Amino acid sequence: MGNSLIAVLGIGKGTWGHVKRLIDENPFDEIALISNEWGKENFKMDKPAKWIMVNNRAGFDVIKEEIKKNLPGGKIKVSIISGSGKEHLALLAALKEAGVEYEFIVITGEGVKTF
Question: What is the domain range of residue 33?
Fold first, then answer.
């Protein structure tokens, strides 16, 4: 299995450009986006993605379990540039509980960096 991206898309559209650039400029085999109905309706991209729909008003465990059962395969790259702390923590807890390895991915002035 190749590289996968999992990214949170929060309700503030200001950080969506960063996520869109990651998707457009990198060859991911699988893309999973954590958002809500509004995010799914308004985030535009040309590549297919799995949408992990969460209600950010739901309990932490509900969000974590929804993410955990929908994690992509392969080498997972994680973007938390967008979204809220609750969604970020649920994603990190889901990754830890699932026992999968991951790297963070970000676009900087020097290009894409993972760590």
Answer: 3-114
Which CATH number characterizes residue 59's domain?
3.40.50.720
Q: Which residues contact 41 (CB under 8 A, 6 or more apart)?
A: none
Alpha-carbon gap, residue 42 to 56, rounded angstroms: 17
Name the residue among 64, 61, 103, 76 with its Cα closest to residue 52.
Answer: 64
Domain count along the chain = 1
- Sequence-distant (≥ 6) Cβ neighbours of residue 16 within 8 angstroms: 9, 43, 82
Encode pLDDT of 41-85 as tens digits: 999 999 999 999 999 899 999 999 999 999 999 999 999 999 999
